[in-house]
Amino acid sequence: MRRRAFLWTTSLGLLSLHATSGAAIDFEKLVMPGPLANAHAEYESDCSNCHVALDRSAQRALCLDCHEGVASDIEGRAGLHGRHPLASVGDCRSCHAEHVGREADIRGASIANFDHDRVDFALEGAHESVACQDCHDPDEPKRDAPSDCFSCHEQDGAHDGKLGTACGDCHEAAGWKLGRFDHAETDFPLTGRHEAVSCVGCHVGNRYEDTPTDCVSCHAIDDAHGGRFGRDCASCHQTSSWTKEGFDHERESGFALKGAHATAECATCHRQAPGTRALPEDCTGCHVSDDVHVGRFDGRCGDCHSPEAWSKTRFDHDRDTGFTLVGAHERQSCESCHSGPTRALSADVGCIDCHSNDDVHRGSLGPDCADCHAQDAFGRRVSFDHELTAFPLLGLHAVTPCESCHANHTFQTESLACVSCHRDDDVHERTLGPRCESCHTPNAWNVWRFDHDRQTEFALHGAHDGLECGACHSQPRVAGFQRSQDCVQCHGADDVHRGGFGRSCDNCHGFEAWVPATVRRR
Q1: How far is CA 258 from CA 79, 250, 279, 309, 383, in A?
Q2: In Å, what is the CA distance from 129 to each residue of 31, 126, 157?
Q3: φ/ψ bin of 471: left (φ > 0), alpha (ψ from -120 to 50), beta (otherwise)
Q4: CA-CA distance, 346 to 334, in Å (whole number)?
Q5: Per DSSP, what are the bridge partners of residue 241?
Q6: CA 461 to CA 458: how far, in whole Å?
Q7: Against a cut of 0.70, is the pTM above it?
Q8: I want to staple 367 with a disulfide (CB 3.0 to 4.6 A). Which of 261, 352, 434, 435 is the partner?
Q9: Which pLDDT value is given to residue 169?
Q10: What is each CA distance from 116 to 146, 168, 234, 485, in whole angstroms?
Q11: Burial of 64 (0-12, 13-18, 19+ CB in 10 A)
């Protein structure tokens, strides 16, 4: 009420000023609450374009007079305004506010939150993820966007317009490639593999009228017979599969197709037109090139092979021969042993007859490999008992691989001497001779048991006790130890008497220390 009083007071004051000054004043502009939006700016000079003085209810009719498309939608209950419950009865200003500035958005709708279901074109399927600008021209009103498929999808049509513009008759909004055309309504219902064939597979060049329906028109390129059996492919083939035939081979030819023969291509056997030549009835007539035995079995392939598969044989080696196949032998191909021109091997065939190339011993252990090797694998589970040889395996020797000692696999020629294997391990550098076992044991190289006092004629006493072996044994020796027990043999360089008192140093010196010397009288 205060605001109205202020406006009337202001208006009266301005009228008084007008009467006093004599200038023309537009009273309506004086009370206008703000400028119009850019879309309505041209109507701002005349308020009567949108308003009737003292009659607010007339404003809706004036809006619809200008916005004829909206009025038509309301009348026909179509579009956003025709389907919206408020737009059909309420005032336009309820949603579209004006006089709030030139840059104001008077549409009163947010594109981000707009519900497309309120208009005549609800977004379904793939349309839900399409950007607004893909269908709505930014320079055109949103309501003017086309709603027919062809207007948007003309460039996507693979039919070059030959099937009309009603894309929805076949295609779905869920996906352009999802069709719902029922081919059963035509003269050529699709059955079997035809159901999965793309349209262009038969309708080449978008030809839909007068499309041929005979098999050979489409399948001439698939005809492995080269037209020899005529144009009626359906007499043998079915739509479920090109290779699944309806021709009864046994009834028509007397040769039943079983196993792999049932899935073989016709041209595999029928390489020429029917009647050109008689087909063979024995296996080798067709399989001579597959015969790895090169005719050695007199063409009797059926004795071992079956029609199910060429490699699936029914020959029982254990039953039909005197050689039972076990272990690795069971997994070998026939040609691994039967490589010669004869059908059967000798009954007394031995391991070495087949494994001579595998014999790393080069015949040194004889021809009977089975004495040591098992049939599971040539290199595993060797059963040779080393205890029966002249060199039983003790200590660390028992867990040492055979190759560590028998590097050349010729077992009969190996030396039994320790030094033959441990020459590089001899820290004494042959100064103690070749018989390592005199001191060391097989349990470990650093475990030794030599007793100098008991095992030699020279007991170690005094300063001699605890000396390194190399202190006395400094020269390499091949045979046994032949060192002299004379003191001067080792202490010649220490003899300050220069041999003046002979070679028996122990007459004066003791074992405890070289000095002091004590003269022993006899």
Answers
A1: 69, 10, 17, 10, 48
A2: 48, 6, 20
A3: alpha
A4: 15
A5: 238
A6: 9
A7: no
A8: 352
A9: 79
A10: 14, 20, 53, 121
A11: middle
Helix axes of 59-66 and 68-76: crossing angle, nearest 10 degrees: 110
Tokens of 78: 């179509």
Chain-centroid distance of CA 97 in Å reads 63
> What pLDDT is recorded for position 9?
44
Strands 237-238 and 305-306: unpaired
Compute the CA torsion angle 270, 271, 274, 275 (nearest 10 deg). -110
Element of type H or E holding 178: strand 175-179
Cα separation, 39 vs 106, whole angstroms: 9
Between 156-160, 248-252, 290-294, 501-505, the lowest mean confidence (pLDDT) is in 156-160
Tokens of 102: 């030139």
Q: Which tokens sit at 425?
A: 């391990």
Q: What's the mean pLDDT in 99-108?
A: 85
So what's the pLDDT on residue 402? Answer: 79
Q: What average pLDDT does range 127-151 have in this prediction? A: 84
Query: For residue 430, is pLDDT > 60?
Result: yes
Q: The tokens 């130890």 sit on which residue?
A: 481
Preceding omega of 516 cis (within 30 degrees of 0): yes
pLDDT value of position 482: 65
Q: Which residue has the higher pLDDT, 487 or 109?
A: 487
Q: How long is the chain?
A: 522
